[in-house]
Amino acid sequence: QKEVEQNSGPLSVPEGAIASLNCTYSDRGSQSFFWYRQYSGKSPELIMSIYSNGDKEDGRFTAQLNKASQYVSLLIRDSQPSDSATYLCAWRGAGSYQLTFGKGTKLSVIP
Amino acid sequence: GAVVSQHPSRVICKSGTSVKIECRSLDFQATTMFWYRQFPKQSLMLMATSNEGSKATYEQGVEKDKFLINHASLTLSTLTVTSAHPEDSSFYICSAETGGSGANVLTFGAGSRLTVL
Q1: What residue ranges of chain B have pLDDT lower than 70?
Q2: What residues of chain B, 15 to 74, have a C-beta less than 8 Å from chain A?
Q3: CA nearest B2: which of B113, B94, B109, B80?
Q4: Count of A–B CB contacts within 8 Å?
Q5: Which residues of chain B lie closer than 8 angstroms to A91, CB-CB?
């Protein structure tokens, strides 16, 4: 069964620190990886997408992909209280529109 | 940017009634839309893939006669929960691929919270 594994947390970090979120996946055929942020009671919103091995940076966010080790991570620098949310990683296989989601990691940034 | 509009955002209904949720793509055409369900503190679970002009593809364990999906146009997909029961209470979210050809980005609607009494 194709799965995405995430530590459900909660993960608490002080304001200004780096938050590190990790995700492992089981399907080596996975092609595309995504990080979504979901505030309580809201639908997910896309933060980052990554398709190639290595790092991808966008502002305070850095996504890291290691296909050999089958993990993808998200680093949030200078964490802010407004970053407090559940972060969902998701993957999609080649030629497919469907996303498979992890269970999400709840992040709390403490002022 | 592309917007996926979902309505209603909240609905409360009595057990045994049917509820329709609409998902619209604004300013773009969506031949394929996806319906997800999310129970409290759980992840999003794909229920079905809605295809314009053809039958929806349901995931294993999802009753197609209970969750009716209609995708009659390139901008509208509807999910009807028939004979709803309290266990159907959940957060239902639709999504569509946006960002242009090859962008591989799914944009989600705001979600519809269904409470069945």
Answers
A1: 99-104
A2: 32, 34, 42-46, 49
A3: B109
A4: 43
A5: none
